[in-house]
Design goal:
The structure holds two protein chains of two kinds.
Chain A: H1 9-32, H2 38-68, H3 79-85, H4 88-104, H5 116-121, H6 123-128, H7 134-162, H8 169-202, H9 215-240, H10 249-280, H11 283-286, H12 289-294, H13 298-316, H14 319-322, H15 325-351, H16 359-380, H17 393-397
Helix pairs in contact in A: 1-16, 2-3, 2-4, 2-8, 2-9, 2-15, 2-16, 3-16, 4-7, 7-8, 8-9, 9-10, 9-15, 10-13, 10-15, 13-15
Chain B: E1 3-11, H1 14-27, E2 30-35, H2 43-47, H3 54-80, H4 93-120, E3 126-128, E4 140-145, H5 152-161, E5 165-173, E6 176-178, H6 181-184
Antiparallel strand pairs in B: 1-4, 1-5, 2-4, 3-6
Helix pairs in contact in B: 3-4
Classes of the chains: A mainly alpha, B alpha+beta.
Chain lengths: 401, 197
Amino acid sequence: MKDQFVVPARLKKTSFVLMGVGLLTLLIGLIAFQGENATRFWAGLLQNSSFFLLITLASTFFIAATTLAHGGWQIAFRRVPEAISMAVPVLSAILFVIVMILVFGGKEDIYHWVNAHHVAEDKILTWKSAFLNKGFFTVATILTLGLWIFFTLKLRRMSIEEDGWDLRPETGRKLLWRNTVVCGGFLVVFTLSVGSTTPWVWLMSIDAHWFSTMYSWYTFASTWVSGLSLIALFVVYLKKHGYLTYVTEEHLHDLGKFMFAFSIFWTYLWFSQYMLIWYANMPEETEYFQPRVWGQWRPIFFLNLLINFVTPLLFLMKRDTKRNYTAIVFIAIVIIFGHWLDFWQMVYPGTVKTLVFPWYEFGLGLGFVGLIIFLVSNQLTKAALVPKNHPYLKESIIHHT
Amino acid sequence: MAVKKFVVGLFDDEAVLFPAVKKVRTAGYKLHDVYTPFPVHGLDHAMGLRETSLHTAGFIYGITGTTTALSFMSWVFNVDWPLNIGGKPHFPLPAFIPITFELTVLFAAVGMVMTFCYLCQLMPGVKKHIFHPRQTDDKFVMVIELTEKTNAEEVKSFLAAAGAQDINEQKAEAGWWFGRYDKDDEPYLRKIQTANA
């Protein structure tokens, strides 16, 4: 049984090529987008860094949620989300640098509330300034990123440490208990950050006059379903290279069910946010949908629904597709791309305004994908692929849907 | 509907039941059914039952619900009685979505429950033969149908070798008939009628 992952040379090369593409795009962007066009340079960075940070953080959420629910089926591949979550510190650092430049570098084309003069003249922004100000933004960002990193590292460290324990009923109980406590703590932080404030300050404040209480949940649903797809991609990759002996199509089936269900959940939030605003028809709320539904972004708005709802709904409905490795890889890539597109249409209409072919954004996205592959494959080598002392391991091995 | 002859064996444990099912199938006996007090994972595969088509039926019921809701609401608000509600268009798709969703779920759920009952021949007023009263309690009951080619004694000894207890032969109606479980008999008190007792 192959239990120790060794990074294949081909994967390493792929990750370096992708990172090279990302850096090259960044460089071209730096030269191409200057002066007035610099907005696009920063918007692309904000879109990609927040999206890829949140989909890796979804892995920590996956561990926390399944642990608290006393799920046993995921133990056979638990090291995969663990390794993905270890990309959170690096991606957090990248995002932190970017948003700090946006806020303190006075990039008012992205966040127009950073201009004090602007805020003083604007009644709505003055009223919101207790919340939307540089101090609060910085403190909230540092606090959330810090706590995410703390809990992610803690969960990973505990999991590796448990490999050295001997297998007894007492150690099993202790293992479950301390994992439950840490995961509970993380979920409180996660709910208050990704489930509520973080998307407001990072993304919704682009349209500073507009507000939607659904926005954070919408962002969460988007990143959670893409995060699940990311886990599925790594699981299939490892399985195809002869690792993860205990993972069968039963586990894949459950991951597929998750992807199917949360694609529908995303649509539910997408629609709820839209319908309330459509029904009330108040100018301060409809202004967000004006460029998206009736402006240049109309094709993207409906493409978003087609890729993220109709495709997974019809594709994953059948049992056979959820149990097929190739089919899952295909739909996982579609879902991640679709939600990347979703983030694009969340950030761009309020900043860059005009619809342009996203070669720059896509190039940056490839760079982030390369970075994630590089970090995750390195982390996968750091521990055995099966947490052999976990009390639920047997439950996972005999798992049957 | 026909009265047939069966050999019935009781099992205590899944671990004995699974190999027994396999042996019965390889020996070529006609497995009528296996009754279990709770759903047993993988038993359907072991028995060689085909994958159910219930979900396909559910999909069809679902899209029927979707079309019903959308076409009825569009007919009402565009053809039969057009009303101006809050200045919205006569075909306000977002406002129709929640109702469309509900009808989709309703049609799918009710349709699937009824199809399930039909497939299992369950219905108030419909009765089926109970091979052993403890089949819904704590025993796994395996029923083998006797054909002209099978010898009852041979099947009995075969089942005994496979680990079954309380093996008996029954002559019973294989299908359903109209009747009531509460009025017509008392399953727990009734003595099992054995054919060659």
